[in-house]
């Protein structure tokens, strides 16, 4: 089998890829969204359905995207172009790589702003300024942050510099060194917080909320929600997993590694949920969804608990780490393309890309206050103007369509021989089952995700 060589280098081991891919998958939204969805839609019943959806949508596309990356050994745009040429297909497939790469850059621009909030709250929590904060006070603090463009710009800038610093150092000294340090720390922090929540929170009620199986809540809406989260949780569709796959050594099993990444992502989200809801329920607070839970409800709870400032700071440090590992995955596809296409060094490529994302982030900052306007999309009213437009463009349109294209390309355009050659075991039952799923089931499921995202179903 002919092996292409990546000019960017390779992961030193299978473990490094697992840590990097898990870091990409575990993000801010996953930490607060999946646990809440689990509790709202039937607990253990929802988890069971979610795992089935993960097997039918998330994992098959993850395997396909990583396989394409390792087969092409280049940035997503050039990997799509090369693999299309190998298959004798139209070169327009590279547009999928372009769309995903640009979506990743746009997501990074507003993701960095939200990550900046976690930095701000890390400082506030560590300083003790949130001790005994009231519900009104917590709401006021968050509102003041969001309505202050200069403060948000400062934190956004700091986080973007952190991201550029890592990505400019390359695969070995940058990406790998970062995940080698950040991911073990993330797991250690999560374990400490689980123990703290077990001792000082209402762990029993949190467990009941998240894992008590109530199959009556498995409505069609719940099934579609599980399907959608199974797709979005693994960071597929933006080229991040493809470019990480380009650095994966040939001897590593893509299928086994991808399954492990998906399971680790799920375990981290569930453990984070136990931490969050144990602390929230111990103080009879609302288990709300989204930023309100993290930036308004939790500070109230931590502020009333023994050692709350210290452990609250650890929690926001955990969020900073999850945001950091995700952001370096979002920026890497564009940086690798610049290095390949423009023949520039990684430092300049990282700075240029970071500046573009930073400038787009200013649009998000202003959309949350002075530039805000409301509009309706998919039957829902949106209040944050251009920020919501960018979110809809990426999360509701580009990502699902990108995932659909990956499934169709691998299942119907690439030759079966090329696919089995890269994955190994073309005659095994596991390969045949995955190949059937990625050809016939996954495309239909992802199409449903897209139709739900735009409000059609």
UniProtKB/TrEMBL annotation:
<feature type="transmembrane region" description="Helical">
    <location>
        <begin position="433"/>
        <end position="454"/>
    </location>
</feature>
<feature type="transmembrane region" description="Helical">
    <location>
        <begin position="351"/>
        <end position="372"/>
    </location>
</feature>
<keyword id="KW-0472">Membrane</keyword>
<dbReference type="Pfam" id="PF00209">
    <property type="entry name" value="SNF"/>
</dbReference>
<dbReference type="InterPro" id="IPR000175">
    <property type="entry name" value="Na/ntran_symport"/>
</dbReference>
<feature type="transmembrane region" description="Helical">
    <location>
        <begin position="218"/>
        <end position="247"/>
    </location>
</feature>
<keyword id="KW-0812">Transmembrane</keyword>
<feature type="transmembrane region" description="Helical">
    <location>
        <begin position="392"/>
        <end position="413"/>
    </location>
</feature>
<feature type="transmembrane region" description="Helical">
    <location>
        <begin position="102"/>
        <end position="123"/>
    </location>
</feature>
<keyword id="KW-1133">Transmembrane helix</keyword>
<keyword id="KW-0769">Symport</keyword>
<feature type="transmembrane region" description="Helical">
    <location>
        <begin position="12"/>
        <end position="32"/>
    </location>
</feature>
<feature type="transmembrane region" description="Helical">
    <location>
        <begin position="259"/>
        <end position="282"/>
    </location>
</feature>
<dbReference type="GO" id="GO:0015293">
    <property type="term" value="F:symporter activity"/>
</dbReference>
<dbReference type="GO" id="GO:0016020">
    <property type="term" value="C:membrane"/>
</dbReference>
<keyword id="KW-0813">Transport</keyword>
<comment type="similarity">
    <text>Belongs to the sodium:neurotransmitter symporter (SNF) (TC 2.A.22) family.</text>
</comment>
<feature type="transmembrane region" description="Helical">
    <location>
        <begin position="310"/>
        <end position="331"/>
    </location>
</feature>
<feature type="transmembrane region" description="Helical">
    <location>
        <begin position="44"/>
        <end position="64"/>
    </location>
</feature>
<feature type="transmembrane region" description="Helical">
    <location>
        <begin position="178"/>
        <end position="198"/>
    </location>
</feature>
<dbReference type="InterPro" id="IPR037272">
    <property type="entry name" value="SNS_sf"/>
</dbReference>
<dbReference type="InterPro" id="IPR047218">
    <property type="entry name" value="YocR/YhdH-like"/>
</dbReference>
<feature type="transmembrane region" description="Helical">
    <location>
        <begin position="153"/>
        <end position="171"/>
    </location>
</feature>
<protein>
    <recommendedName>
        <fullName>Transporter</fullName>
    </recommendedName>
</protein>
